[in-house]
């Protein structure tokens, strides 16, 4: 497969390959991400003697971010292995809309974290880190939460673009099969985020947002799977292109 150029990748993929003097494989980059975040979470928990729930919540967030990295690479590999319309690839990888969605989600989350909580019902930060959270703990928490929000934004954008692709284009059966698998990877990608729900069970707004996001991705990606399957062309179909025929 030809080398993927910048502008044809998700921001996450660009960062992995853009560091000067650093040449690591994508699996190794994921392993480094997992170890670095998990060591940081464990050290903060140990040094500040936080409750066990804090360690478990931090570990869950690290796992979600890492699974997101794995799924992003799996989805991109499936998509790039097929001959697909350029407009689909540009929208999915080169638009950076997933970053915009991630920023909106992150700002909303930070606003919620720092504006909720009363003497009778402490905020999530107070429950995990006490009334005066250490600066290092807050910094690491926000860093990990940004990574999680980026995965959420990517899952949503991948689902939306997949539905647009399935409505606008028709593919032969082998290509449709690969795209179905990519769409199901998006579903798995979002479903992994439910790991966080037990740790925010007393925060109904956050629970509703996570569950609502996952259900929305299921619906949108599910529609894409149904459409790409129903519109798949057989080998003897009269099409203008053997792999993808655009229906403008």
From TrEMBL:
Q: Which InterPro entries match?
A: DUF7530 (IPR055952)
Its recorded name reads Uncharacterized protein
Give the source's domain of life in one word: Archaea
Q: Any stretches that span the bilayer, and where are they?
A: 28-48, 54-70, 91-115, 135-164, 206-228
Q: Which UniProt keywords apply?
A: Membrane, Transmembrane, Transmembrane helix
Q: Which Pfam families match?
A: DUF7530
């Amino acid at each position: 497969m030809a080398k993927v150029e910048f502008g044809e990748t998700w921001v996450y993929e660009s960062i992995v390959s853009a560091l000067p003097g650093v040449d690591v494989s994508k699996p190794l980059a994921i392993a480094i991400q997992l170890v670095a975040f998990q060591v940081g979470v464990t050290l903060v928990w140990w040094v500040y003697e936080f409750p066990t729930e804090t360690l478990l919540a931090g570990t869950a967030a690290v796992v979600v971010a890492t699974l997101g990295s794995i799924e992003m690479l799996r989805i991109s590999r499936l998509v790039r292995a097929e001959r697909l319309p350029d407009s689909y690839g540009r929208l999915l990888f080169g638009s950076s809309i997933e970053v915009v969605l991630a920023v909106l989600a992150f700002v909303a989350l930070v606003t919620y974290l720092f504006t909720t909580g009363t003497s009778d019902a402490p905020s999530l930060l107070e429950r995990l880190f006490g009334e005066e959270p250490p600066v290092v703990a807050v910094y690491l928490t926000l860093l990990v939460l940004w990574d999680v929000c980026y995965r959420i934004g990517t899952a949503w954008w991948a689902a939306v673009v997949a539905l647009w692709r399935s409505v606008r284009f028709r593919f032969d059966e082998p290509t449709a099969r690969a795209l179905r698998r990519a769409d199901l990877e998006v579903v798995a990608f979002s479903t992994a985020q439910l790991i966080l729900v037990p740790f925010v069970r007393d925060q109904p707004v956050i629970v509703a947002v996570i569950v609502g996001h996952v259900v929305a991705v299921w619906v949108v990606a599910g529609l894409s799977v149904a459409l790409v399957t129903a519109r798949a062309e057989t080998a003897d179909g009269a099409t203008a292109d053997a792999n993808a025929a655009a229906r403008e």
